Structures are given as structure tokens and as C-alpha cells.
Amino acid sequence: MGGNSRKFKKAEKSKIKLKGAKLPKGTNITKTNFKVRKIVVPDQLKQRNLTDAAVLSSRNLSLKDCLAKLKLNNVSSKTEGLRGVREIITKMPSELQRMLSSVVKDVASLSIDIEPDVRKDSYKTLGCILTACGPSIMVPFYEVLLSFLRCSMTHIQSRIQEDSLLLLDVLLQYLPELIVANRDKILPQFLDMISKLRTESKPGRTLTINLDKQSTSTRWRVKVLSRLTGILKILIDCKTIKDTAMEPVDKIPRPTEDADNPFAPKVSDYQPNKTMQINYIFDETKTMFLPIRKQHLYTICPKDVLFRKSTVTDKDLSLGDRIDDGRKLKMYVEMLMPVLLESWLEVRPAVTGTDMQQEHALTQEAAATLELLMAIFIQLWELIVQYSSETNNDDMKRWFREEYSSKFCTHIVAGFPYYQSGTEVKNQGKRSKTIASILPEKTVDDHCYRHNFNICFFYCCLHDQFRGGKKKSQTYGKIVEYVKRCVVNWKFRGAEATNLLLQVLRYMLLDTDCMSVNQETRALLQTLLEVYITAKLPQDIRNRILVLFCDIIVQNDSLWRRYGQELFTLWLKMLPNLLCKPTIDLTVLKALLCLGQRGNVPFLEVLETNVKQIVANLDTIRVTNEVQPGEGFVLICNLLFYIRKRKLIEELLACDAQGLKEISQRERLCSTLAIKLEMLQN
User: What is the separation, in whole angstroms, between the first and last Cα of the chain?
Assistant: First the structure.
């Protein structure tokens, strides 16, 4: 070490040293007369409008900057870009219109990204875009969204295929028109996620295994079937909106003849979107004309639809154009029903030995599957009913009943009623009771009431003569007994359970073409009447049951007589007393008016007995759920118009009607009674 130091010092001494040399004065000053030039990096530093913060994200990024980040490979950059797009759209939706095409394509392309966080962020951003734009603006981008949806449904990676359901949820919520317009393209690939074709030439399908080992096949099918209910729901709503949006029928258009063309046809050309119109004019001096024919029967039937012919070759048409709506509906029913029934056969309770009570108990997965299956069954039935009413032909309904009624009874109704396994053991606690011993106490189980009520409703839909069969059906008897127990033990506090039960009761007692009545249905009606009279039910439930009874009497006179008029006698005598109470619902008042219009003798007799108390109560009675003020009072006056005794009307005009405090009400009631008195005198 010492030798190296000596060598270094010797080398330093040997260097040439400048001594005594100094710079002249002024040359040691720093020069400042140089020119400055700006440094410009193209396409990186952009001029921003920092005064308008609405067009920038929280990171001071413009919409174009955010889209540029979506094309990077970094996950954080993509999520930051998606977050920025959402922030800009939320602040200023108009900014989206300038670059709508790029935004939709770039965001939708991330729906098949390999990273799950990026995919979920893209679904969220796409929902914001659809909300800001609206369905009409998104029509040009249907093909873009549809292509990415179908690509994600058929993706080779199972996680991307599973997340395609989230993309479908976004489209179902914000853009249902896309699903309706492209249902023929979406449904087959949608069903491929849980099933496969048995043969390429037939629509029948069979179930497939789960996507991966992280979720069971049952849970995956529940996820897929829940989206299927959403698709069917928008199809039903679409048809319903079209029916309600049709213009009123005013007149029948006449074909216009061309005088210059002697060969012009005298029959107008077929125009499928044009509605035939009929004009009804009311004239009080003539007999009222009430048409009983359906309006759609006036439409012209095209020959190509009638004979299944097409004016062009089938090769130039798609499958949806070659097959009409009825055949497409039948094809999808044949495609869905086997898959749905197989899904239930895999999760239904297995019967072990002689323990027949165990077949009613459902696991959580089985209960979820059954609820979805029943919802899909009923939706398919609604689509068939809509098609039958549009075409005025019940062939589709008859085919569906013949094909699937026995299978439904064999596979699903055999274990009716159901309850959820596990809840009974938890509720019993330390009690050492077997399932067989607690089953009678669980006939109306809150955990499965939707399942059981939907089974009752769908069974009645599949059997059009369930109410009037000459042979006693054991299955229908089991359903009636369950509904009777539900009516007697009305323990359902939720609105959903009440709606389901009342829907089942209305269909079983009224809403069907069957005109005969068997003993089981008559016993069910008698039980409902007894519960209405004796039980302390909530007022809204009592009102809906009352409307059901009135509809049975008013809408179908022969059906009421088949049930037996003696069943309704006591109940009819109670109805006029409702007008003496402080409040009455508008729907109940309309039902009472229908009874008066039909001239129901037991009802009118009690009405005439209590008419003075009713008139005295007009000053204080309050009609709930009125659309317009004073509507309820007008209905009461119209009801009193149907009093049959002339002397009683004269007494009301002379004394009771004059006691009303409000002048307008007094004049209205007196004029109504005066018109009726004049009619009786003539």
C-alpha cells in the first residue's frame, strides 16, 4: 500500500504546472447572448382546456387519453382508462357523442379481456354508456355488441364464458331491444353453455357438465337459467307493449280502384304493419251495437304465410325468415323443455327405501333450480297463450298440453308439496323428531311457497278440464287440499305470496274455459267464502277476494249457477253494508256497480233495505284510490240508479237526498233518481 502511494505522489509532481498565467479582464464572465429554442415532443404533450374540468377525469385525462390507455397491455392502465371514461360520461354525457363509435368498440372489446378485473370494469362502463346514450342511438352498434356477446359465450376460456352472463345482464337491463331483435342468434349459443345438441338435425338437447371444478354443475345451470328467465320476460313484455300500443280500431279501409288501369286488382295488397280500423258511433235513439268479434280477424291473411310458401329461394333467407313465429316458438319449446326436465331430474330428492316423506325435502340448490324451472315453464306458457290469441288458434296450446302434461306430473307434481331440507332441523332445535313426524306441520312452508303455488298454477294451465272432470283426479285433489290449507292458514305477510295465492285462486275458480264444476273446486270456493266472512284478514286482501267473487258472478252467469247460488246468498247480503262504512275502495265500488247492472236480486234487495243509511253516509264516506276527485260519488249515484221501487225513490227525492250538504252532490243524486223515477213511470 505504501509503495503505491509514493508512486502516485511522484506522478503528480511530474505533471506540468502553469504558474503566473491569468485570464485577461472580462473574459471570465458567463455569456448570455445565446438563443433559446422550445423542445416539442409530438403526440405526447397536448394542449388541454383546464378551465373546463367537466371534460377531464379525476387524473386530468381527456376522453381520447382514456381510450388510448385501454389499448395498453398494463392492467392498471386499462382499469384507469375505464374509470376515466365513466367519470367523463357521468360529468358530461354530451362529450360521449363526439367519439361514440370509438368508445363503444374499445370498451366492448375489453369484455373478452384475459384479466377478470378488466372484464368486470368494462361491463360497468358499458352500462354507463348505454344509460347515457339511450336505446335509439345504440341501434347502429347492435352488431358490434352482439359479436362480442357471442364471442364471450363461446370463448375457449371458461372464466370468460362465465363472465359473459354479466355482459348479458347489462344488455338485458339497458338494451333489451338488442336481445329481442337477435333472439334467434343468441338463444342457441346461450343454451350451448349448459347443453349440447343430441343430433345436428333435431332441436333436442342434453345436459353437459360444468365449466370447471370451481363450481358445481347445478350452480352453473342456476346462473344460466336465471338469465333465461330475463330473456323470456323481455320477449313477453315486448309482445304486450306491441298489443297495447296498437291504434284504436276506427274504420275498415276500402281498396282504392285505379281508373286508369283496368287490370288493377280490386283487393288491396297485403300490408302486415297496417291496422284495420272500425268506427263505432253511439246514437241514443238507436240500438247500441256491441261487436263481439275480435279485431284482428279483420286483417288480411297473406297466402305465403297460409301455405308456408316464400316468394324467394330458401337459400337467400335466414332461419328466422324461413320459419314463422309459431314454428320458431315450437322449436324453442322443444329445445328447452328436455333440458329443463333433465336439470330437475339431477337435483330432485331421491327416494330411499320406504321413506316416502323424504321426497318432499329439497336442498338449497334443488329449491333454487325448481323455482327457476317453474318460472320458465310459466313464461313459455304465456308466450304460447299470446301466440294463440294473436292467431285465434289453440293448436299450439293443445300440442303443449299433450306433449308435456304427463311428464310434468310424473317428474314434479309427484313430490308436491315441497319444503326445504335443513330448515326443519334448525327450527326444531333440540327436539328429537324425524322428518316424517314434522311433515304435517310444514304443509305450508314459507321457504317454498313460490314453488308450490307455481306448481298449482301450471298444473291447471296444462289441464284445461281440471275443474270439471267426471273422474276424480288424485293429483288435482292434492293440489286443491294444499290451496285450501293455505287459505285457512293465511299466514303469508308478504305481497308476493299474496299475489301468487290470489292468482292461483282466480285461475282455479274463474279464469279458464271449463264451464263445469266438480266437487273439489266447489269445496275450495266454499272455504274461501267462509274465510272471507269469519277470518280477520287485512283490508286489501279482503278487497281483492271480494272482486274475485264479483267477477265470478258478473263475468260468467252460468258458472255462478253451477257453483250454486246458495253459496253466495249470505255474502251478497253483506255487500251493501260496505257503503255504510267510513271508507270504501274504488275497485270494490266498481264491483258492486257491476252487480247492480246485472240485476242481482239478493244484492238489490239488501241495497233497497239500507238505501237511506247509504244516502245519509254520503257526506262522510271516503272513496280510496280515486283517479279523479268525485269519481267514487258518481259511482255510488249510478249504483242507486238500479233501485226498483218507485215509492222508495220518491221518498229519497223528497227527504233523504235533500240532506246532502254539498250542492253539487245533491244535484247529481237528485238528477239520477229523477231519471230513474221517470223511467219507472213510463
Answer: 145
Residue 172 grid coordinates: 338485458
**Cβ–Cβ < 8 Å for 344, 409:** no
Q: Copy the grid coordinates of residue 424.
A: 326443519
What are the DSSP E strand ranges found in 462-613?
583-585
- Measured distance CA(62)–CA(84) in Å, rounded: 8
- The kind and range of the H/E element at 623 are strand 622-624
| Average pLDDT of the chain, as a whole number | 76
* Nearest partner of 634 among 598, 600, 665, judged by Cα: 665
> Cell 285433489 belongs to which residue?
477
- At residue 361, φ and ψ (nearest 5 deg) are -85, 135
Cell numbers at 429, concatenated: 332445535
Q: What is the per-residue pLDDT across 467-491, written as a single tens digit (0 to 9) for each?
A: 776 667 788 888 999 999 888 887 6
Q: Please name which of 212, 110, 210, 220 lies closest in space to residue 167, comparing C-alpha atoms.
A: 110
Residue 527, classified by CB atoms within 10 Å of its CB into exposed (0-12), middle (13-18) or buried (19+), is middle
Question: For every residue of 153-211, which 3-state class applies, written as one string?
Answer: HCCCCHHHHHHHHHHHHHHHHHCHHHHHHCHHHHHHHHHCCCEEECCCCCCCEEECCCC
**How many whole angstroms separate alpha carbon 484 and alpha carbon 229?**
30
* Collapsed DSSP state (helix, strand, coil) of residue 62: coil
Residue 622 host element (H or E): strand 622-624
Q: Find, among 396, 315, 331, 323, the residue nearest to 197 by Cα.
A: 331
Q: How far is CA 492 from CA 96, 480, 503, in A?
A: 49, 18, 14
Mean pLDDT, range 617-628, rounded to an integer: 86
Q: What is the rounded CA–CA span in Å between residue 484 and residue 136?
A: 50
Distance (Å, whole) CA 419 – CA 439: 9
Amino acid letter, residue 490: W
CB 537 within 8 A of CB 528: no
Segment 360-405, tens digit of pLDDT: 788 888 888 899 999 999 999 999 998 888 888 888 899 999 999 9
Please state, in angstroms and rounded to a whole number, the distance separating the CA atoms of residues 478 and 443: 12
Looking at residue 533, the DSSP 8-state letter turns out to be H
Radius of gyration of the chain (CA): 38
User: What φ, ψ does residue 416 adopt, rounded to 5°?
Assistant: -70, 140
DSSP 559-592: HHHHH-HHHHHHHHHHGGGGGGSSEEEHHHHHHH
> Which letter, b or e, does each residue of 47-61 get, where b requires 16 or more Cβ atoms within 10 Å of its Cβ?
eeeeeeeeebbeeeb
Q: What is the rounded distance in angstroms from the CA atom of residue 207 to the CA atom of residue 415? A: 23
Q: Which of 238, 555, 245, 247 is nearest to 382 (CA)?
A: 238
Share of the chain above pLDDT 90, in %: 12
Instruction: State the Cα–Cα distance between residues 594 and 529, nearest whole angstrom.
Output: 19
Which triple of cell numbers denotes residue 675?
Answer: 231519471
Distances (CA, A) of 566 to 118, 191, 526, 570, 604: 69, 54, 10, 8, 16
pLDDT at 443 over 60: no
Contact 409/459 with Cβ under 8 angstroms?
yes
